[in-house]
Amino acid sequence: MSAYRIDLAGTRYRFDSLAEVMACASPARSGDELAGIAAGSAQQRVAARWLLADLPLVLFLEDQLVPYERDEVTRLIIDSHDRAGFAPIAHLTVGGFREWLLDDATDGAALASAAGGITPEMAAAVSKLMRNQDLVIAARKIENVTRFRNTIGLRGRLSTRLQPNHPTDDPQGVAASILDGLLMGSGDAVIGINPATDDLPTIARLLTLLDDLRMGMDMPTQTCVLTHVTNTLALIGAGAPVDLCFQSIAGTQTANRGFGISLALLDEAHDATQALARGTVGQNVMYFETGQGSCLSSNAHHGVDQQTLECRAYAVARRYCPLLVNSVVGFIGPEYLYDGKQILRAALEDHFCGKLLGLPMGLDICYTNHAEADQDDMDTIATMLGVAGVSFIMGVPGADDVMLGYQSTSFHDALYLRSVLGLAPAPEFAAWLERMGLTDPGGKLLRGDPFLASVRSVPALGGLCG
């Protein structure tokens, strides 16, 4: 369609493209305003949503927001579309799709069956019509389970990424943070370090440290140093102990080029990591991170709103059946998500859309120090995501990352969610915590004296135990 029009309350609203309809229908956020594509008024936003609700889902297969000929992510979305999965919902409008998602008769099995037939643009469109509570209740129905050395994403479980970053990659500092996290039951999603440098020998030392700790304590978890995919390929070639392959991804070919990646490179990295066969209960080997605003920050947004582009990144992720997908929701800054309200909305959108598309979604519930947000906002977001069934969150010492310089969630925050919502770690990790004397049979945290006694024999930790 060349233009989209709607008459509402005596005013005719005209939108020149489907991308403009989608952008104007989005809840207000600073990134879309920065890009000059946000609705100019609340009335225009309502008109765009009214118009969007009546558009058929099949339109998103015909009217691509980013041209097929110019973008490999669009080609991936269209060429991999599961028409059989789409068939039960193909007759619906976007508004009808919302009603189907919220219908009590639409259960997790129905959502899983349809996942391959739902494009990122469809997911983004329907989320724009949903209240926060709609995003929670629909996401809660979905269970996307992945496995490597433990099982992540089961209903009633909440995993954590233990994030032991250090500003100089000091092994003792990293080990101290890991010990702190393990004593509080953190680390079942992954023990993952953001390195301060991309120096390959340093990254290899960190990988070896993590592997020695894991094997020394017989931990059923996985480890990762979050370096560029080309570094991981080089480290695999050098025989480093790589469990997971990490990469930041975005929703357009141009933005991914800015990250130094392509689908062909990700294919190579996935195949190389999977060939190591280091998993024990499964072989989901990829770890992806995303964030609303990444395409705009690299001037690669094609006039499309940041939330829709975030959903397109999920199409890249699901190509590789990843173990973990993490939306680092407030990390890019207030230029894209201005305050706690915008971060909350983005977190609920990302979690719902990612799960709807079949992904194991976790969130780094975070903000930068110049955002209009504080830790109370993070508590609210964490609680709502816990209710919505988030697969994992971050465990950062004191919630303050001393290397990356931003505020996230702490080991204590995960304990809070597990306590108030009756959640538990991954089953294999929960059994390990009990076996090591860190929890009682009911999962309650103990002092960990038997654990501390046992880790004195682990060279990297023994000197930290006093």
From TrEMBL:
Residue positions binding adenosylcob(III)alamin: P195, Q247, S297, M403
Listed pathway(s): Amine and polyamine degradation; ethanolamine degradation
Highest taxon of the lineage: Bacteria
Catalytic reaction list: ethanolamine = acetaldehyde + NH4(+)
GO cellular component: cytosol; ethanolamine ammonia-lyase complex; ethanolamine degradation polyhedral organelle
First-level EC class: lyase
Cofactor binding note: Binds between the large and small subunits.
Keyword Lyase: yes
GO biological process, one term: amino acid metabolic process
Binding partners and assembly: The basic unit is a heterodimer which dimerizes to form tetramers. The heterotetramers trimerize; 6 large subunits form a core ring with 6 small subunits projecting outwards.
UniProt-listed HAMAP family: EutB
Annotated protein name in UniProt: Ethanolamine ammonia-lyase large subunit
Organism: Novosphingobium sediminicola
Gene that this sequence comes from: eutB
